[in-house]
Design a protein that fits this description.
Blueprint: E1 14-17, E2 22-25, E3 31-35, E4 43-45, E5 54-59, E6 63-69, E7 75-81, E8 85-92, E9 100-111, E10 114-121, E11 123-124, E12 129-130, E13 132-136, E14 142-146, E15 149-154, E16 160-163, E17 170-178, E18 183-192, H1 202-216, H2 226-238, E19 252-255, E20 263-265, E21 269-270, H3 271-284, H4 288-304, E22 311-312, E23 323-324, E24 336-337, H5 348-362, H6 368-384, H7 401-415, H8 420-441, H9 463-466, H10 475-488, E25 489-490, E26 493-494, H11 512-525, H12 528-536
Antiparallel strand pairs: 1-2, 2-3, 3-4, 5-10, 6-7, 7-8, 8-9, 9-18, 10-17, 11-12, 13-14, 14-15, 15-18, 16-17, 19-20, 21-22, 23-24, 25-26
Helix pairs in contact: 3-4, 3-5, 4-5, 4-6, 5-6, 5-7, 7-8, 11-12
């Protein structure tokens, strides 16, 4: 069934997500990636990295593709065919459970008649284990299992088992004909360790999912790009589990740059990312994602203290070490699962945690456990700020200037929410870190440099001032922004740092986050024209 789901550039995939897992939908209506039951579980649909398994709804005959998001992460694939137009409305149903996923697809002949090919090839273990026990109930529903995943599929009573040419794998296949205006609802229920419980009818599932997204996404009025901001919030909500952990991405093993060996598994919760998200949400209001981020980071700090690691599973467990699956991988990438980040120390995570706690405290959303976590983070900084760490970009350990300065910014931010006497020690620690950094890592030009031994500039060095660690008119702030503009930007795109002597763009691509840092930095300077240009770019 691999012909139904060839690899595409990533911008052509849509994301469905319910907090516990996600689906990538390709332009052929193919589910190219889905891990079940959780984000970091083995994939049931793995064609994205060359494995087996797919769930496809694809028009027969010649067609062109498009699509758009409705409310939240409800997606509509839309194809224009020679006979008219056909759509497939798709979502992971809400509310959700950690052991159960309900996948909704509503196929509609929008204009003219439509014929679509529907194929369900459920697998386990990244496509290596085929479905078994496929059988049809008297009501037309199909049931079966792949490994520990049990399925029930309704809406396709005419589907028939299909034997692939290779390996004798049995899938279910249906050619569906629809008249203009006619729709067909397909409901796939996946459940771990046991036959799926009956799902409500499709109309109730759609209504519940729409209501849940309406409830979960705030209006975010007053933002510069309200529609984009609300969609971004929906994506973050979709990536955040019931336990509060937000995975960095739905995928694994996709290359940062083709054939460079930089393929990583990002289906885990990075403490720094969780803190950045919580701080961003707090700028708009005390919305639930702020509380979830605060609760997750609090729990990890209280559990691990100065031994906090950069990333965890959504259950707060250690990230597994890297291994290979013996699959082709995404073109240009590898088949790596797990992440070696579990061996790193990242000092800046403590500073970002303090910034998150300060943001929560500003909304009176920091409870007693949160304040205990504040004390824990401060103690960890005091104990470890002189050690080398892997830094924000997770590279070779050094005394990275950004890591130290973001800790100072965090100490100053949380101090503002305590009486002066209690906060004096925290402010003194911030002063000591800043003074040491000024002695060791201030470039002769007056800007910050990456580390005492690395004189280059780094886009991350914009963050301490943006977070309030330094005044906007501090000469070091101004000089650093000027250096990033002069040395790390091309055509309105910003790069993290210059890794070698090659021109920017040859060693690696521009980083979207750095462009937003430029917008924030210029906004802080009062240069709203440049800030708007960076934001729009």
């Amino acid at each position: 069934m691999t012909e139904l789901s060839p690899p595409h550039v990533l911008r052509e995939y849509a994301l469905l997500a319910d907090g516990e897992r996600g689906v990538l939908v390709g332009p052929h209506g193919d589910f190219a990636w889905m891990c079940f039951p959780r984000w970091d579980s083995a994939a049931s649909f793995a064609s994205l990295i060359g494995g087996g398994g797919v769930y496809a709804v694809t028009p027969t005959g010649r067609h062109t593709w498009g699509g758009y998001y409705e409310l939240g992460l409800i997606w509509r694939s839309r194809w224009v065919t020679e006979a008219g137009a056909v759509e497939s409305r798709e979502a992971l149903a809400l509310p959700t459970r950690s052991d159960r996923a309900v996948i909704l697809r509503r196929v509609t002949a929008v204009r003219g008649p439509a014929q679509v090919r529907i194929v369900l090839d459920l697998r386990a273990d990244y496509g290596q284990t085929a479905a078994t026990h496929l059988r049809q109930h008297d009501d037309g529903a199909w049931v079966g299992r792949a490994g520990n995943t049990h399925m029930a599929w309704t809406g396709a009573p005419q589907a028939r088992p299909h034997t692939a040419h290779r390996g004798g794998v049995r899938a279910l296949e249906l050619i569906l004909d629809l008249d203009e205006g006619e729709s067909r609802d397909l409901v796939l229920v996946l459940q771990q360790d046991g036959a799926p419980e009956p799902a409500p009818d499709a109309e109730r599932l759609w209504s519940g999912t729409e209501a849940a997204w309406t409830e979960r996404i705030p209006e975010l009025e007053g933002t510069l790009a309200q529609r984009d901001a609300r969609h971004s919030y929906a994506v973050l909500q979709g990536l955040t589990s019931l336990g509060g952990g937000m995975v960095a991405a739905a995928t694994m093993a996709l290359p940062e740059r083709a054939r460079q060996g930089r393929s990583y598994d990002y289906r885990y919760v990075w403490i720094r990312d969780q803190c950045l998200t919580g701080q961003a949400v707090a700028k708009a209001g005390p919305y639930p994602l702020l509380d979830r981020a605060t609760d997750f980071v609090t729990a990890r700090l209280l559990a691990d203290g100065p031994d906090l690691v950069p990333a965890y599973t959504i259950d707060g467990e250690p990230v597994p070490p890297e291994r290979h699956l013996q699959l082709p991988g995404y073109p240009g990438g590898t088949d790596v699962v797990g992440n070696w980040v579990n061996q790193q120390f990242q000092l800046d995570a403590f500073g970002e945690a303090l910034l998150l706690f300060a943001a929560a405290a500003g909304h009176d959303h920091l409870d007693a456990d949160g304040w205990r976590a504040v004390e824990t983070a401060i103690a960890a900084i005091e104990q470890r700020w002189r050690e080398p760490d892997a830094g924000i970009w997770e590279i070779d350990p050094d005394h990275w200037t950004h890591s130290r300065l973001i800790c100072a910014a965090g100490l100053r931010a949380i101090s503002a929410h305590q009486p002066a006497g209690r906060a004096a020690g925290w402010e003194a620690l911030a002063d000591a870190i800043t003074a040491q950094s000024s002695r060791e890592a201030l470039h002769p030009s007056g800007r910050w440099q990456r580390s005492p031994t690395d004189p280059r500039v780094d886009a991350a060095l914009l963050l301490p001032a943006i977070r309030g660690g330094f005044a906007a008119d501090d000469p070091r702030t101004v000089a650093t922004l000027r250096a990033v503009q002069d040395e790390l930007t091309v055509d309105g795109y910003c790069y993290r740092f210059r890794p070698d002597e090659r021109p920017l763009g040859e060693a690696e691509g521009a980083f979207l986050l750095c462009g937003f840092l430029m917008a924030l930095a210029y906004g802080q300077q009062g240069d709203h024209v440049r800030a708007a240009r960076w934001f729009e770019r």
